[in-house]
Write a structure and sequence with these properties.
Layout lengths: L10 E4 L2 E4 L10 H5 L2 E9 L2 E2 L2 H14 L8 H15 L4 E9 L14 E8 L8 H4 L1 E10 L16 H12 L4 E6 L4 E4 L3 E6 L2 E5 L8 H12 L4 E4 L11 E6 L3 E8 L2 E2 L4 H14 L2
Parallel strand pairs: 7-8, 7-14, 11-12
Antiparallel strand pairs: 1-2, 1-6, 3-4, 3-5, 5-6, 8-9, 10-11, 10-13, 13-14, 14-15
């Protein structure tokens, strides 16, 4: 599958039924387009099975509730819809996007309580998110924007509006020849990349930012448990940016990113060391088991 995402063969699940891929459209006055009333999940299927599927469905509902959007589907119904869409696609290794948004209705201002909450699921093939960087080590820029305080926005929701500064930052990073950008939070501590969580290694121990103002990724949680099972100490804490000078290894985690080694962040460089390689290999085995 290639070309523009709105011009492909196939079907997309929308509001309980399959529609032709090219006909999966919404009205220009959909509330989500104007006010970012939208949440989503990015998931991967391996060998015909969506990894951590139920956890993603549960988080989708939690994100919708955080944006005051009553979900029209239960976890079980979302699970059934995703499985049906994956089967309909004919793919076994694929990316799965579940999307929930406020559609068009009687409201067209900030309020949208009278507008229906809609849902769609699309499946497509997607390789390594960072391309060759997945093996060689990604190069990251340091974003100008900051991750906001939890008092300003529902930071633990996977909401479309939270990605606006990610798009801006990733565009600037790519223009500099980088794969991604690393955010600090509003206090100045290391936070995350535009669509992935970050881990560091020093003296055989792993350090990762405390997820107190950004999404606690499902892949992040999975990798932390894998490390602990291997007997590796994991320190979830606030990390100052200058500490990156002393870290030896670094990697990113995320459904799209999977486990991607990092070779450079700004002026700081890292080796693709044993712990990074081992956890990447172990994760690949886990998702395909």
């Amino acid at each position: 599958m290639s070309g523009s995402y709105d011009d492909r063969d196939g079907t997309i699940w929308m509001d309980g039924e399959f529609v032709n891929w090219r006909d999966a459209n919404v009205h220009i006055l959909s509330h989500a387009m104007h006010y970012a009333s939208s949440v989503f999940e990015g998931e991967r299927a391996y060998n015909g099975k969506i990894f951590k599927s139920r956890e993603h469905s549960e988080r989708l509902i939690a994100s919708a509730e955080a944006l005051d959007m009553p979900m029209p589907y239960s976890v079980d119904e979302i699970e059934a819809a995703k499985e049906a869409t994956l089967k309909e696609s004919g793919l076994t290794d694929a990316y799965v996007r579940a999307l929930v948004w406020r559609g068009s209705g009687e409201d067209m201002g900030v309020a949208s309580a009278k507008n229906p909450v809609r849902m769609a699921i699309a499946v497509w093939p997607w390789g390594a998110y960072y391309g060759d960087a997945k093996m060689q080590g990604a190069k990251l820029d340091i974003a100008e924007w900051k991750r906001p305080s939890p008092e300003t926005i529902p930071v633990h929701a996977k909401a479309a509006g939270l990605y606006m500064i990610c798009t801006i930052s990733k565009h600037k990073a790519e223009a500099k020849g980088c794969s991604d950008a690393l955010f600090m939070d509003w206090r100045g501590y290391v936070a995350e990349a535009t669509g992935a969580n970050v881990f560091f290694v020093k003296d055989g121990e792993v350090h990762t930012p405390l997820a107190d103002c950004f999404l606690n990724g499902i892949t992040r949680q999975t990798v932390i448990q894998m490390l602990k099972d291997k007997g590796i100490t994991v320190n979830e804490r606030r990390i100052k940016p200058e500490e990156m000078a002393d870290f030896e290894q670094c990697w990113l985690t995320g459904t799209a990113a999977e486990v991607t080694p990092v070779g450079q962040i700004g002026e700081y460089t890292f080796e693709v060391g044993d712990i990074t390689r081992e956890i990447a290999e172990d994760y690949e085995k886990l998702v395909r088991s």
